[in-house]
Amino acid sequence: MAKMTLEELRALRDSKRQDLARRDVEGKEIQIIVGMGTCGIAAGAKLTFDAIVEAVQRHGLEDKVVIRQTGCMGLCYVEPTVEVVMPGMPTVIYGKMTQDIADKFVRKHLVEHSLLDNHIFDRPAADIIKK
Question: What is the pTM of this model?
């Protein structure tokens, strides 16, 4: 392994600090949980996860959103799956969430507070959704 310069070490440290800050849940009220079981990974969940992270950063929401991984959500037929827990909105599990949809998902759900109807595969009962 080649030796690193002091500047390279500082850049690496700063990069790792940013990664750790992104994982910090304190003060973040929105959770995005990506299903990363074997079926999800095979369907492209890792690419979806990375695209969601980039979209959250692009929209300046990294201080409000924590993005986590979980195992299989039991909806293997619509992988990759993404669960969203957000105040003022119903908890929703989206399916068929590819990397191509990540920016639209962040914009519609997190910024505009509206649901992506054609990707909802688990929705709370109608009596708990406020109109």
Answer: 0.77
CB burial readout 80-101, b (16+ within 10 A) else e: bbbbbebeebbebbbbbbbbeb
Distance (Å, rounded) from C-alpha 11 to C-alpha 5? Answer: 10
pLDDT at 62: 87
Beta bridge partners of 36: none
DSSP of 36-85: -SHHHHHTTHHHHHHHHHHHHHHTT-TTTEEEEEES--S-GGG-S-EEEE
The predicted pLDDT at position 128 comes to: 53
Question: Is 70 exceeded by the pLDDT of residue 123?
Answer: no
State phi, psi for 57 to the nearest 5 degrees. Answer: -65, -45
| 10 token code pair | 């500082």
Tell me the per-residue pLDDT of 13-38, one tens digit each, with 9 for 90 and over: 888 887 776 666 667 889 999 999 99
Rounded Cα gap, residues 43 and 17, in angstroms: 30
CATH 3.40.30.10 fits 27-128, yes or no: yes
